């Protein structure tokens, strides 16, 4: 084989993997954003967040199936699949946001009120996550669900590299979400309050913004992002199972930490970094080693730069 | 050989210069004060001396040994103890245990010893406990022995901190604002206490303080810092009248001439 | 006499249990439960050393358990049994009897060495970041085992039945039960001695104020090393014992879920309370068995219970106190060391 051909192939493979990594990393980024926002505001690792992602996917599933069933029953209005998709996305975001806020109010807020140590809240978060997973398992059974195909999958080929419209959409949506979030956080009052809380919790109420509102808003944002990730993920990989949030969630959390937890840019970048790591590792090593190597790299990275890529170490005064 | 020698020490935190060209010599037996407006770098100096930071430039010698780069517990083991600006007692442990614990580096036994408890363990533990008991007696804290530090009045907590430092049997004692938060009678007791322990334990004492009453009454030499630089040094009366010192303090509400 | 009282009482208890097991008074199921209780006691008290006494948040304890389980099992199967994997046993079955504790300890030491992966980062990081590292280590261990096809990978490893049979072949006693009881007692004894000594209190000092500890003469690195390695080593021993209960292990047993179970026990019992860990281990294991018919709902009820615990009694059953604090008479009975000599 000529050198030109080999290099060409190499570039193709590289680009292919790059695209896959972008898509894969998008999911991590979307979910990581939720983790990082809650951490930035509450200094809490919301371990239930990965399972919120799962709930988003499942809710999407039920809404989509419901709407499609309506569609099949031929109601006065006919809903084209794209409309179903958008509705699913929207409704899932709303429902998931409600769930996130409910968890905050029922489980985290009482502990905050009591001034309980952060550790207790973290444990509660972990337990909420388990509740969601196993509650799902209990209620819906162990059989997997198939997410209905709502979008016409079009495959494009460009010089040996194949990608689907879904993949592109995922990446674009993620970028849009990031831009949206950055705008909210830097340009709106609530957003700035969110940033302020992480530095001084007492000051924010003194500025006339109720603490609870800001916190609720954070959860709304984070959870709806997770829902977006959930629906998109289900669109790209249509098989749902109750534990899907567990692994993806933990990985997204790692991505958030990698980027520097508490920093939105960090979550975004961290998500893609992890996505890249995984895809490229999987390209060269047996896929069973993928998770192993990813976690090992994380371990090494954290040992050397614990605050992550964008994180700022909080200095302790002696 | 002097007890402590700080030679041309300059320390930066990133781009911020916290301490500049510091020179201190303590022969042994002095009662020295370190004063200066807020943010002058006083606690940083203590942190440098006790090994928490390694000076960016310059060297620090303790008992003739270059201690830059040693870990704090190693510096402590050489014979230096300190108290902190904010009380840092171990609140899950009793007052008695607090004093025992600062003798950790000279326990004389390790994991195996604590589990198997041979004779050496019992003897060492007894020695440690005796030291703590005696100190508690001396400091008038004996009846607080089994209390948790957070339950004690503030002045007593400071006293426990000093006791904890003394349990290390140091040659040099660094006190970081020991009178902070105390009422006037507690301050009087503190002045007495510091004078007394200096005599009794043959210590060298170096203290940071904002309350001028303490500084003027207690210290034999005073060093004044402003923005990390030494602006005056000498006997209390001299320093008090030094125009540069007065200027540095002008407008500083912390200074109280009680 | 006072000093040896607790030892005496425990030995009596063990003797009674073993007798019951031997004679069949205690049926196989009850024996199984007791064995699980013992394992859980080792797991929860060893984790309590890190999460309770040292105030960290380690969420990967099952990883160390896995290391011990596999190392001990592989050694045992290799040395004492004829297996299809390794061929004839190197030492023959009868030596299993007195070498079993040795291989257990080798498993423990291996786990302790893996514990270094967490101990070393702990020098510079605390809290949330360290928690993630423990998570990563748990996952790495599990994933590594899954990738070693030689020992079964994800399918698991077996052959420990034969090891146990080899032991009972020499002297017919419930050996696994005996060793579990021995090591459970040993674990609690070692930990109790450690944390009541001034040396061990250094660990608590680190939790309360690490900076002050460092400056006031505690070699925090050394103490962290000791604590993490001891904790993971003990988990490794628990793993080795666990492997011989059913005679089969697979990586899927040692996931974050398992680590969470152990976490639950620690927080249920109370951080920093050894007696709390023991009680919680007993209570938790027993309750789990009692609710076995409701297996489905197990992992809904457990998290719910813990959430309620966090809301209404976060300090757990015992809080920071020991049994001897709640029942002072017990202190005299057990001859515990007084606070002051």
Structural features, described:
- The complex is a heterotrimer of chains A (318), B (258) and C (341).
- Chain A has one domain (3-304): ABC transporter involved in vitamin B12 uptake, BtuC (Orthogonal Bundle).
- Chain A is 75% helix and 4% strand.
- Chain A is built from eleven helices and four strands.
- Chain A has helices spanning 3-42, 49-72, 81-114, 118-140, 165-187, 189-199, 203-206, 211-236, 244-259, 264-284, 288-304, and strands at residues 145-146, 155-158, 161-164, 239-240.
- The radius of gyration of chain A is 21 Å and the shape is globular.
- Chain B has 258 residues and is of the alpha/beta class.
- Chain B has one domain (4-249): Rossmann fold.
- In chain B, 39% of the residues lie in helices and 23% in strands.
- In chain B, strands 6-7-8-3-9-10 form a six-stranded mixed sheet, with helices on both faces.
- In chain B, strand 1 (4-13) and strand 2 form a beta hairpin.
- Chain C has 341 residues and is an all-alpha fold.
- Chain C has a single domain (5-334), classed as ABC transporter involved in vitamin B12 uptake, BtuC (Orthogonal Bundle), CATH 1.10.3470.
- The two termini of chain C are 17 Å apart.
- Residues 337-341 of chain C have low confidence and may be disordered.
- Chains in contact: A-B, A-C, B-C.
- The A-C interface holds A 39, 45, 107, 110-111, 116-117, 119-124, 126-131, 133-135, 137-138, 246, 250, 253-254, 257, 261, 286, 288-289, 291-292, 295-296, 298-299, 302-303, 306, 316, 318 and C 57, 59, 117, 120-121, 124-125, 128-129, 131-133, 135-137, 139-140, 143-144, 146-147, 211, 256, 260, 263, 267, 296-297, 299-300, 302-304, 306-307, 310-311, 314.
Key words describing this protein structure:
heterotrimer, B: 258 residues, alpha/beta, Rossmann fold, six-stranded mixed beta sheet, 10 helices, globular, C: 341 residues, mainly alpha, ABC transporter involved in vitamin B12 uptake, BtuC, 15 helices, 72% helix
Topology:
The complex is a heterotrimer of chains A (318), B (258) and C (341).
Chain A lengths: L2 H40 L6 H24 L8 H34 L3 H23 L4 E2 L8 E4 L2 E4 H23 L1 H11 L3 H4 L4 H26 L2 E2 L3 H16 L4 H21 L3 H17 L14
Antiparallel strand pairs in A: 1-4, 2-3
Helix pairs in contact in A: 1-5, 1-6, 1-8, 1-9, 1-10, 2-3, 2-4, 2-8, 2-9, 3-4, 3-8, 5-6, 5-8, 6-8, 9-10, 10-11
Chain B lengths: L3 E10 L2 E11 L4 E5 L6 H8 L7 E6 L2 E2 L5 H8 E3 L12 H7 L9 H6 L2 H20 L15 H14 L4 E5 L7 H17 L3 E5 L3 H7 L2 E6 L2 E6 L1 H6 L1 H7 L9
Parallel strand pairs in B: 3-8, 3-9, 6-7, 7-8
Antiparallel strand pairs in B: 1-2, 1-4, 4-5, 9-10
Chain C lengths: L4 H19 L4 H26 L7 H20 L15 H24 L7 H21 L9 E2 L1 H11 L4 H22 L1 H11 L1 H6 L4 H27 L1 E2 L6 H14 L4 H17 L7 H15 L10 H4 L1 H7 L7
Antiparallel strand pairs in C: 1-2
Helix pairs in contact in C: 2-7, 2-10, 2-11, 2-12, 3-4, 3-5, 3-6, 3-10, 4-10, 6-10, 7-8, 7-10, 8-10, 11-12
